[in-house]
Amino acid sequence: MKPGQSLLISAVLAPFAAAAQTGTLPIVRITTDNATPIVDKVTPIPGSMVVEETDGSLTEPMELTIRGRGNSSWKYSNKKPYKVKFAEKQPLLGMARSRHFAVMKYDDTFASYMALEAMRLLGAPWAAHMVPVEVVLNDSFDGFYYMSETVRVASDRVNITKQADGITDPALIPYGWLVEVDNYYAAYQVTIKEPGMSSLKLTMHSPEVLSDQQRQWITGEFNSIIADLYSNTDCWTERIDLTSVARYFIVREVFHDTDAYHGSLYLYRDHGKWHFGPLWDGMLSEPKTDWVINNHPNYATTHLIKPIMQTPAFWEEVGRLWPVFRNEVMPALFEEIDRMALLCAAADEANQIRWEYANRRTTADKAATLKQALLTASEWMESRLAPYLALDETAIDHDDIEPAYYDLSGKRVNSPVRGIFIEKRGKNVKKLFIR
Fold this sequence. Notes:
Blueprint: H1 5-13, E1 27-32, E2 45-52, E3 62-68, H2 72-75, E4 82-90, E5 98-105, H3 111-121, E6 130-137, E7 140-149, E8 177-182, E9 190-192, E10 200-206, H4 212-229, H5 242-254, E11 265-269, E12 274-276, H6 305-308, H7 312-354, H8 363-385, E13 404-406, E14 412-413, E15 419-425, E16 428-434
Parallel strand pairs: 1-6
Antiparallel strand pairs: 1-2, 2-3, 3-4, 4-5, 5-7, 6-7, 8-10, 8-11, 9-10, 11-12, 13-14, 13-15, 15-16
Helix pairs in contact: 3-7, 5-7, 7-8
C-alpha cells in the first residue's frame, strides 16, 4: 500500500462507519426476549424498555410487547417503525400515562412532527405528542426515531365515550365512534359507496368488533353522510363539524400531503357531530401547484373532501381560520423547526451514517428547506383564498370596471354560475349568491 493510501481509504469509508447513539436525545433501549427479531406487524414479541435520559439517568425496565406497524413504511423501508404495548400504563418521556405508544421513523424533514404541531396550534382538541429519541434495539443502534402517542379513545387522547364491542342496545350504539378511512383492504371493514370513487373503506377503532346492529348503524350513518355531501347544499354541516374539516384541510394543504383523504383519515363522533381528525402520519409532498384533490396523479381517491369543497360554508370557515394560521401558527412553527433542528442535529447525523445515506444533509439545511416549502405553499394558498378573506360587502360603485368572477376553488371563471361567487370591481368586492 502506498504511503497515505490508508488515510485516503479511511476518509472515504468514514461516512459509512458503524454509527452509535450520540446521547444528545433520550436513548430508548428495547430488548426483546432472547433477542427475537421483529419480523411482522401481527406477532407481538415480548421484551422490555429502558429510557436513558440525556443526563444519564435510567428508568426502571418496563415490560412490553413490540411488533411492526405502518403500511408502506413497514413494507418498503429497511428502517422499520414499531408499535409497543406496555404491561402497565407508563408516563413515557413526559407524555401522559398509557400502555400504547409507537416508535415512529424520523421522516428526514420534521414534517410529521410539525404537521401535528400545526394542528395543535390551530386548536385541535388533541394531536399526538412526539418526542425525538435515539433507539437501540437488542444492543444495536437503530437510529433517530420519535416515540409517539397513538390514536386511541382515552381521556387524554381522543376524549369520547368508549363504545364496547358487540353491543346491541340501540340506545348506546350511536355514541363513541372512532373510525379510519383506509387505503388498504382489511378484514371486518365497513365499505360505503361514494359517487365517482372507489368504495370508502372504514376501519373500526372504537368499537373494533361490531355486532350486526353496530354494523347496520355505522353503514346507515355513512350512507346518509355521503347523501348529504353530494346534495349540493350545506346540509352536511348538520352531521360533520365544520371547523374540524377546515382545520384539517388547511394543515393538509399547507404540507401538500398527497396521502390526505384517501388513507389515515380518522373521524370520530361522541354525542354530537362527526369530527375530522385526529391528524396522523403527516408528510410533506412535492411543491404545491394546486389543491391536493387536483394535484394527485398517483391516487384515484380523495374521499369526502371533493363535495365539501363545493359548498359555501366550507370556504367561509377556511377563510375565518386562515388568518389565524398565517399570523399565529406559521411563526410558531418556524420557531419550533429551528429548535428541533438544533436539538436533533447530532442524532440526525448519526442516523444518516447508520442507514448509509448517499446524500447527507445537515438539519439546518433540512429546516431551511421545510420552512421554504411551507412558506411557498402558504403564499400559494393565500392567493387562492383571497376572495374569501376580509370581504367588503358594500355597494359596488365602479360600474366602469369589468368584473372578475371566481369559483369555489378560487379559480377564475368567465361568468357567474350556480353557487356562491366573488365579484371584483377595482378595490371593492362583493359577495354574490347565485341561485
